[in-house]
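User: Before I run my own analysis I want an independent prediction to cross-check against. Here's the chain; please return only the structure tokens and, at the end, one sentence I can use as a sanity check.
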Amino acid sequence: MDHAPPKTYYIKTMTIAAAATWLENELQPTYGEVEAPKMAAMVMEHLTGWNDANRRLRRNEYLPGQQAQRLAEIHHRLMQHEPIQYVLEEAWFYDFKLYVNSAVLIPRPETEELVYWIVRDVTASGAPVLQHGTAQADQTNMLKILDVGTGSGCIALALKRRLPLAEVWACDASDAALTVARRNGAELDIRVDFVALDFLDAAQRHQLPTVDIIVSNPPYIPAGESAAMPRNVVEHEPHMALFVPNDDALLFYKAILQFATERLYKNGAVYLEIHEELGADVCALFENAGFTTELRKDMQGKDRMVKSYRRH
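Assistant: Structure tokens:
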């Protein structure tokens, strides 16, 4: 079915309440009774700049022409199964809003759990990096963190936001992704050193510092699984950030292990997001290199995170 954009003049004759109902009804056959209302509310807040309470107060006002045109465009893209985060160019992560586009993965709740784990461990360690102060981060030498494959910058920016006196670096092979990450850093006024490099190239890794914490949500989905994945993911999210060869699912974990063996400070730790079926394999990889590992489940009960550390 061809979901061409509706005539803008038709939407322009709608009130805010009518436009929200129309969009919800349009989305429901594709996205279902639960998701469609949520998506319609997100779109209307994005368009009007008003939260749900304010929209109810102004429900009988008509959409201005520019908003009507934008609603027509959003409707058309959503009916093509494009993720709403890309359509609206925004996604929430941790406690802040990020700019996103199709150059980066959409931040997910499981990745937030990885950040929470790191922050809890750092807090428990007593490292004096939690409080804001006058010292510059690169003068404290208190805690150094590297985010491998940063994408939108969500992990690195969240950690720097919660651990303001830590030094945080982040790298990615995609210039387009780094453009997004740097934009997010600038808009949020959070300082992270974003570095362009291919982490799989050992020679390029010499650009990176020795650190206390390595964190990564690397590509880990075997390419053969793409056929069973949702259309909105496979058709729109960047494949280089999702997939690895079928015969080498641990490709990035091997590179991270090599870097950790050479460039992780004493008592440092590696925090990784993993494929739910690869927990035992990732743990074995690091344990065979002398690391102690801890495997954790996410809120859905799936093996999703591994911490590896080695006492020297």
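Sanity check: The chain has twelve helices and eleven strands.
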